[in-house]
């Protein structure tokens, strides 16, 4: 096997790992994106101080 070919194979494996990491992080951010509004609204409801701050118009 030539060194060039080995380099290509290594590069392909690394880029695949990078892709799967990227996909995983995108999915994770999607999940957080869905959960964040619920979490923030719960936090908002649970904290009267924040409500007072936001009620000033």
Verbal overview:
The structure is a single chain. The protein is mainly alpha-helical and 57 residues long. The protein has one domain. 91% of the residues lie in helices and 0% in strands. It contains 2 helices and no strands. The longest helix is centred in the middle third of the chain and has 44 residues, at 3-46.
Question: Can you give keywords for this protein?
Answer:
single chain, about 55 residues, mainly alpha
Kindly summarize this structure in a few lines:
This protein is mainly α.
SSE inventory with pairings:
Elements: H1 3-46, H2 48-55
- Share of β-strand residues: under 5%
What's the β-strand tally?
Answer: 0
- The number of helices is 2
Q: What's the Cα radius of gyration?
A: 23 Å
- Whole-Å distance between the termini? 71 Å
Major sheet size, sense and barrel closure: none
- In the predicted model, the low-confidence regions spanning at least 5 consecutive residues are none
């Amino acid at each position: 096997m030539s060194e060039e070919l080995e380099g290509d194979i290594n590069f392909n494996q690394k880029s695949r790992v990078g892709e799967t990491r990227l996909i995983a992080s995108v999915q994770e951010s999607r999940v957080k994106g869905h959960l964040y509004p619920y979490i923030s609204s719960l936090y908002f409801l649970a904290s009267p101080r924040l409500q007072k701050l936001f009620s000033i118009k």
